[in-house]
Write a structure and sequence with these properties.
The complex is a heterodimer. By secondary structure, chain A is α+β, with helices and mostly antiparallel strands. Helices cover 51% and strands 16% of the residues of chain A. Chain A is built from 26 helices and 21 strands. In chain A, strand 1 and strand 2 form a beta hairpin. In chain A, helix 18 packs across helix 24 and helix 22 packs antiparallel against helix 23. The longest helix of chain A has 75 residues. Chain B is α/β, with parallel strands linked by helices. Chain B contains five helices and five strands, in the order E-H-E-H-E-H-E-H-E-H. Classes of the chains: A alpha+beta, B alpha/beta.
Chain lengths: 860, 134
């Protein structure tokens, strides 16, 4: 063979292989697309059925009308009546017209039309002519069973398509209790007899019976002729058409309703998934389009000697095939990661080894672009307990991303260092960088391709998404920084072991798209901190499947986070989601509602679950278990968590409303972060929960209602968030505050209110925070309010706060005993504090100590 | 002699190449543009007999380009075939709403596209002769 021929043979063989491969991919792809478009397909299918039904209806009617018209040419009168029957009338009206047409045109005084009810299998009387009310009632009361009707259809009675049963055949016997026999008076032999029966079956085109038309009492008193039979047939045909029309209309309406429902559902789903589905299908179709077009062109030019063209085409097919393959792999990876079926295997390994392995692979990509790849480690051994292959994946994706966006001759550096109980991995490049407003979007799926960069920088735009899912599933964090034009830096922080992980996030394709991952993490963290719970989880509602799934959690294993799905209504969270009510269980094993064994991961038998509602619709559920104090949750905890959940909903709404703007919902995020920070700073003091519990106990005794105590519990928990702006060192020093610091301190109530604004919707709460440093004598700050001008809740918080601060001490002051603090409170009673509040508060504390519920402050 | 001039607009260079090849084999003269703005720019100087237009493109998408073509008296007579990876009915409806004469979903068969082009050009020629005779 000549070299050209060999070349051609090779090319053809390769094209064959590629064709086979392309076909295979296309098949698997079409399966994916099929399922993605499942609901739309169903809608389309119904639409098809619907138009088929409509077409069938039209066809049948035309056909029937045509045949009857031909035959009715001889019977002008019948035709006139028949065609005057308007098909737009309701079925009963049409049937009424038909039986009267029979009466007029065929000349029988009595006409009865029965319709087969396919459900009961009996013929029901449906239309009448020439019968009085009593006769109609009699006929309506008895349905003719189809089995009985079938015995009438004897050949001996046949007259065309009609059946004539003369009375002298004695077919029905002497007495038929159900039959209706009119009194026609005496009849001569050869005349119509009152026991004669003439009927014509109504049958669909395929012969399936749908009813029959029977007549009695001919005006001319004569027995029926063949012509009479034919006239009856014609009108019977009209009745069939009318009945079939009606059935079709009914089916049409049903299909319409179903179609409408399906469309609505599809639209709903589409809204949730539209981004994903349309993006994925677009991304998949793009390489497929190239493959199909080039393969077809090759096939059309099989005999061509233009080897260059063929080689070029095969090259495109090959490249696009690879792109498709990596795209499908990436989608499968993500889907699998997010499906909850994937299991994470944590094992200790040396991160340095994994980085070296990945760098070995990346070199192959970096070398053609002359990109320098460097690594640096703080230690030759950085042991991490994580899923080795997943971490490898993260490094690989970050490295690939860096190399892809770095121009020829640039540099990519990977650095590994320790950071407390976390490992920090930095991947830095000298590439094109990311614009500031784009930086928060780089982890979005397919982000890159939307930006139109994919032409220049081939990739599938899923690598960073996958990396983020993996990192967050490990309870770590990932972020990006960049200076456009100078390069980007991706920073990953992974907990060294599972117990170092804070919040574990389960990444998902939607459905609650508006709740950003960052906000959900903050939510869980805040709830866990404020409520002092070892385990806290946030579940979101998957409306499509009517299920709840864990979006983010602290203290739960990764498998639990990814594998838990609860049907609405089932179990505790399902109950809460379904009813939109909080649920407090003090002992799960004793609770008659959930009589079940305690789950091993829950140290305590008490749990608390509250709904997160936006516009009165439950969008999620917050669950907490295992109070760090090991005590059961109380009503006070429930009130506090409910208040928190209301603010969480507020934060999400705020975030969703601001998502479109560049502001990125920072206000809501800052508010939640401030609460977390405030709670952590207060950790040396009494737990926030206890603070709230004392405040609400005082409030209740002073006559506050449930709603007021709810505000109070929440306000008591967060009243000092504004202090975050005051440098902590200052407050730890003795002596007078200098004026500058004093100004800062004096502003903290207002700052707190400002900080909480994005998530605060109750002015009462803002008022309470604002006034918690006011004094009864008007010498407090910031507004110098007097006595009753100060909200009661603020007066309560002032006392609880002061007592706590005295009994816990300051770095520069020894803690006082409860008795000493009580004396001090009484001394300031009336000037600084509300006398009634002080008295009730001291009672509450005394009772607490009596019941030994108060814990000794931990030795600091 | 060429059967007609066709403007192919797509941001995927491969698609532009293969259409150039396939339509060229059919005897058409092919003009190309890689995005919506380029396409409209080209239309200022060149008047093709038909336009094959992708929808998802950077800068100016196919819907916008089509709307512009169909509202400009100088270009509104030119048949437009939208070529898109967007396969939903709503996408197609939107295509016809902006005045497209045909809508083909990617992946597509170049042979089918040629058939549709032949049909559209045949049709628009007969329409022209109708109007001139009336």
């Amino acid at each position: 063979m000549s070299p050209a021929a060999i070349e051609l043979t090779w090319a053809l063989a390769a094209s064959g292989l590629l064709l086979y491969e392309a076909g295979r991919r296309r098949r698997s792809l079409s399966r994916d697309l099929k399922s993605l478009h499942g609901s739309l397909d169903a809608a389309v299918q119904r639409n098809d059925q619907l138009s088929a039904a409509a077409e069938e209806m039209g066809r049948l009617y035309r056909e029937q009308l045509l045949t009857s018209r031909q035959r009715a040419a001889r019977l002008r009168k019948v035709l006139e009546i028949a065609t005057s029957i308007n098909s737009n009338l309701s079925l009963d009206k049409v049937l009424h017209e038909i039986v009267h047409a029979v009466q007029d045109a065929v000349g029988y005084r009595i006409v009865l039309l029965r319709v087969l009810n396919s459900r009961t299998g009996a013929f029901e009387a449906r239309a009448f002519a020439g019968l009085d009310r009593d006769a109609i009632t009699t006929l309506e009361q008895y349905d003719v069973p189809k089995s009985e009707y079938d015995t009438w259809l004897r050949d001996e009675f046949k007259m065309g398509r009609a059946y004539y049963v003369p009375h002298d055949r004695k077919f029905w016997g002497d007495h038929d209790p159900h039959s209706y026999t009119p009194d026609l008076g005496e009849r001569a032999a050869g005349e119509w007899h009152h026991e004669d029966v003439l009927f014509v079956p109504l049958a669909a085109k395929d012969g399936v019976p749908i009813g029959y038309l029977s007549v009695d009492d001919p005006a001319d008193r004569r027995r029926p002729t063949r012509e009479i039979g034919e006239m009856l047939e014609i009108l019977a045909n009209h009745a069939v058409v009318a009945l079939q029309n009606a059935a079709l209309v009914e089916r049409l309406q049903e299909s319409m309703a179903r179609l409408e429902e399906a469309t609505e559902r599809a639209e709903e789903l589409n809204e949730l998934k539209s981004n994903f589905v349309s993006t994925v299908s677009h991304e998949l179709r793009t390489p497929l389009t190239a493959i199909q077009a080039y393969v077809e062109a090759l096939l059309q030019n099989v005999g061509s000697t233009n080897v260059t063209m063929q080689r070029d085409f095969l090259h495109v097919i090959d490249e696009q095939g690879r792109k498709l393959k990596s795209l499908i792999e990436a989608i499968l990876d993500l889907t699998q990661l997010e499906s909850g079926r994937f299991r994470m295997t944590r094992e200790p390994f040396n991160l340095v080894d994994v980085v070296d392995e990945v760098v070995g692979v990346l070199k192959g990509m970096a070398e053609p672009k002359r990109i320098t790849l460097t690594t640096s480690y703080e230690n030759p051994e950085v042991i991490l307990e994580a899923d080795r292959s997943l971490v490898r994946r993260v490094l690989h994706n970050l490295g690939t991303n860096a190399i892809t966006f770095t121009p020829d001759g640039g540099a990519v550096a990977i650095r590994v260092s320790g950071e407390g109980r976390h490992v920090r991995i930095v991947v830095e490049d000298t590439g094109i960088g990311i614009a500031p407003d784009e930086i928060s979007k780089v982890f979005d799926k397919f982000y890159q391709s939307d930006n139109g960069l994919s032409r220049e920088y081939p990739g599938v735009g899923l690598g960073l998404s996958i990396a983020k899912s993996i990192v967050e599933w490990h309870g770590g964090e990932i972020g990006a920084e960049s200076e456009p034009g100078h390069g980007s830096r991706f920073v990953v922080s992974l907990p060294i072991t599972r117990s170092d992980a804070s919040v574990i996030t389960h990444a998902t394709w939607s459905p609650a798209r508006s709740v950003s991952d960052h906000l959900t993490r903050l939510t869980v963290e805040m709830v866990a901190e404020v409520m002092n719970a070892r385990i806290a989880s946030l579940m979101l509602v998957d409306g499509e499947r009517e299920e709840l799934y864990i979006k983010a959690a602290r203290g739960l294993r990764e498998e639990v986070v990814c594998g838990t799905r609860i049907k609405m209504g089932d179990s505790i969270a399902g109950w809460v989601a379904k009813h939109g009510q909080p649920l407090l269980v003090t002992n799960i094993e004793d609770d008659p509602r959930f009589g079940r064994r305690n789950h091993h991961q829950y140290e305590t038998k008490s749990l608390l679950s509250v709904p997160v509602k936006i516009d009165d619709r439950v969008v999620g559920v917050i669950n907490i278990n295992n109070k760090i104090s090991c005590l059961p949750f109380t009503e006070d905890d429930q009130a506090l968590l409910t208040s928190l959940a209301e603010r969480v909903a507020r934060a999400w709404e705020h975030a969703a409303a601001h998502e479109a703007t560049a502001d990125q919902a920072e206000g809501a995020t800052r508010a939640l972060a401030a609460i977390i920070d405030h709670t952590r700073r207060s950790k040396l003091r009494l737990t926030a929960g206890t603070m709230a519990a004392r405040a609400t106990a005082v409030g209740r005794r002073l006559g506050m209602n449930e709603e007021e105590t709810k505000y109070l519990a929440y306000a008591a928990t967060i009243h000092d968030v504004g202090m975050a702006h005051v440098s902590p060192g200052i407050l730890h020093e003795p002596g007078q505050l200098d004026p500058e610091v004093w100004a800062q301190v004096a502003q903290h109530p207002a700052r707190g209110v400002e900080l909480m604004k994005p998530i605060e919707f109750q002015t009462q709460v803002s008022e309470i925070i604002m006034a918690h440093h006011e004094r009864m004598d008007g010498r407090g700050y910031p507004r110098g309010l007097h006595g009753e001008e100060i909200p009661l809740a603020s007066r309560i918080i002032a006392v609880v706060d002061a007592h706590e601060s005295m009994t816990l001490g300051r770095p520069y002051r020894l803690p006082m005993s409860h008795e000493e603090a009580a004396t001090e409170l009484r001394r300031c009673s009336g000037t600084q504090f509300d006398e009634r509040v002080v008295e009730v508060f001291l009672q509450v504390v005394t009772e607490e100590e009596d019941t030994k519920l108060i814990r000794a402050p931990e030795a600091a | 002699m060429s059967k007609g001039r066709i403007l192919v607009v797509d941001d995927e260079i491969y698609i532009v190449h293969i259409l150039d090849f396939s339509l060229g084999m059919e005897g058409y003269e092919v003009l190309t543009a890689l995005d919506g703005e380029q396409a409209l720019e080209r239309l200022k100087s060149d008047k093709p007999d038909l336009i094959v237009l992708d929808i998802m493109m950077p800068k100016l998408d196919g819907y916008e380009v089509c709307r512009t073509i169909k509202t400009n008296p100088a270009t509104q007579h030119i048949p437009v075939i939208l070529l898109s990876a967007k396969g939903r009915n709503v996408d197609q409806k939107m295509g016809f709403d902006v005045g497209a004469d045909d809508y083909i979903t990617k992946p597509f068969s170049p042979r089918k596209l040629v058939e549709r082009i032949n049909a559209l050009l045949g049709q628009s020629v007969s329409e022209k002769s109708n109007t001139s005779s009336s």
